[in-house]
Fold:
Amino acid sequence: MLDVIGAASVEDLFAHLPDAARLHRPLELPPGLSEYEIVRYFQDRASQNSTGFASFLGAGAYMHFRPVLVDTVVSRGEFLTSYTPYQAEISQGTLTTIFEFQTMMCQLTGMDVANASMYDGSTAMAEAAMMAVRITGKGRVLVSRAVHPEYRQVLRTYSVNQGMPVEEFGYAAEMGTLDLEDLDRKLDGLTGAVIVQSPNFFGIVERVREAAELAHERGALLILVFTEAVSLGILRPSVEADIVAGELQSFAIPPSYGGPYAGVIATHEKYIRQMPGRLVGQAVDSNGNRAFCLTLATREQHIRREKATSNICTNQALLALMAGVFMTVYGKHGLRELAEQNLAKSHYLAGKLRPRFCGKFFNEFAIQLEGKSPERVNRRLLRKKIIGGLPLGRFYPELADSVLLCATETSRRADMDTLAEVLA
Amino acid sequence: MRSRVRPNISFNEPLIFERSSPGKVAYQLPELDVPAADPLAALGPENTRSEIEDFPEVSEVEAIRHYTRLSTWNYAIEYGMYPLGSCTMKYNPRINELVARLDGLALTHPYRPEALAQGSMEIMARLQASLAEITGMDAVTLQPAAGAQGELTALLMIRALLASRGNPRRKVLIPDSAHGTNPASAAIAGYAVQNIKSNDAGMLDIAALEQSVTEDVAALMVTNPNTLGIFEENIVHAAEVLHARGALLYMDGANMNALMGIARPGDFGVDALHLNLHKTFSTPHGGGGPGAGPVAVKQSLEPFLPIPRLRSVGKKWAWDYERRHSIGRVRAFYGSFGVLVRALAYILAHGGPGLRKVTLDAVLNANYLRKKLEGVYELPYQSPTMHEVVFSDDRQARHGVRTGEIAKRLIDYGFHPYTVSFPLIVRGALMIEPTETETKHELDRYVEAMTQIAEEVENDPEIVKGAPHETRTSRVDEVAAARKPVLRWKPV
Structure:
């Protein structure tokens, strides 16, 4: 090959690099490892994490069983090692699964269109806010304090330089739902978006309809966020929302210490051209057969550059595929039954404890540990091989004595009984 | 015609909704070990839905056949070469998949107590340190979900640093050969974009740069090697010009595959860069994601890194949320951990010498393709080639055949098309990046295909224009699809 090129050595191919830019020593990284050594290294790290604990953590990442078919499908090289499906003729596999994914997201959320995925729920929410501001031409964003605290932090990071002042409104101390009066007070004519989450961060089914009515009265859009996608199997789709932004980790995406996950944005037809992210549309090929392709690319950065609806390029296609396989395996009956099992488990556990809020909840709820420190209680639980709830003081100083518990279909009765004994 | 592909059996497959029939299921759930809860009572009738209309109802075997059949309609790295310029479509080692799926890693909840997540944190710390060494930078954040988010993260940090010095400034300079994400990210960070023209060598025009760097300029976003596969030979000088006027140098690290062990951005004046782990570090593209876009910075930007930061406390790792100058967070939790595991596995497998070898081979392969094809396709820039080479369709356009059509014809020869019509500064660009994982045998097959197509352009242009011919789906009408978008299935 060097002869063809006309170079004496491979090093010669770098001779034109300025000396000042060159690295004149080897990289200080150890030599390469064999397959066996690499597996050992990661097995050791995995056991350093320690396993065998029952966990009652939720708060935006949920422990659900992952049907075997999911990894079977996403491990196929055709899905795993293919590129973004810009070349439609040899990407119909990915394109078809995305089209099905978009359809299933519409069926679940009650919206007209859904995109091909976003990085995660938190960035989907930030992008939805930017989208609402573009649509309404009004920059102010109001977000409920019962929205995931880390999602709100992301929203701030994204909005700070875009002339989008973000303000928060409170939650009702008794119910744990959004404080409608506070929203009413803060919602002015300059507000372009109102953001609520349901079930909210405390697990409680939110007053979406009332929030939407208020928002619409003042000319703002209502953005509905979800972090627990399994709830969609049983909760009424909030069609009064203008944009839905959610996290699909619950649909067979492993918790994997926080990522990669998959977000999604769904909305009404009239807002399609303001949507961020890739979209797959139906087409025909030159033989008249149905086919699919990426479409409406004039919204995107590779065409519109600084005028694009978002800077997103790479998305979470493989994770959207995981979610798609999950939705296919569970299907119409399974997703409902799965949601009912989650409901049953969390209500069994809650029945043994006293939830902090009296609003209706799905598979998460807060409890108050009167006089006990959440951290100390959690340390006691660890000795019984149980990871307790998330101490809420970290995000809500006024709830420093409370923890957020989550029970899913994977929570066993015996563990819940032990947990309740220690907490009671 | 030996080199053309032959059709294989290809199943027809309807959409999953068209396969559904009432009552079929593919799932199994255990019996409840607690009493059932009545949804109407627990959630209220006003909050409860009836059935999910038209949602799939298939059996398990129908489900697996559905997805398996669809999968065969894709091209993939595991089938053949993907010479997509700037995308670095290298082989994705399977061991990466195995280790990322270990229960102790994959099933770790992000809010686990830190004491029970030390293994995951150690992996992240090791990856941060490795990337810092490879890039010659001082600190790394693994939080950004992809390259574009890495760009945004870095620009927000640059803005915060400049603001702390009294003026965030107004503009970001971007060469005309840049990826589209660069200007789009700059806009979200609140910066106006000013384009900088490239010179005849396909490099940054230093005179134009010197003129453009005013008190208003926050940073230059440069890709190096740039999207022409050319190393910016004036990069050190460019950094000096920027720094002398209080501006910063940002590097889009999409093409880091050309530099490992050879040159480090930190040594040639870069203040911040992002890396695409799904390019240089072999994590699978997955049909469009997930990726990961870590950002590496110099000390001056370190205080502004996103929260939380890994911090060592004695022999343990801890998350530090108390960082006064941080730009905040750019996503929930800590990063795309599963992708990070795969990237670290790749770095461990190669080690320092192996990564350097990757770069040598990637550049060797690209130069080989250049030499073999420069008699056949027009080479608009004569500067030395690094990891990718860009031709133009000038000669073929005379016969009425354009780059997009040549690309489609490649499919009939068993190759994925190269990157079409990018960078924008080359008319009718053919942007080719072989990566180091292709063998000479495969490169020769590719050269043969490209050469035969060039002959076809002269002798039988219609066969090229109508391509692909060997696929189950022929040319898709994307214009009509965009005119009347159908974005979901509906029952007839």
Summary: The longest helix of chain B spans residues 337-373.
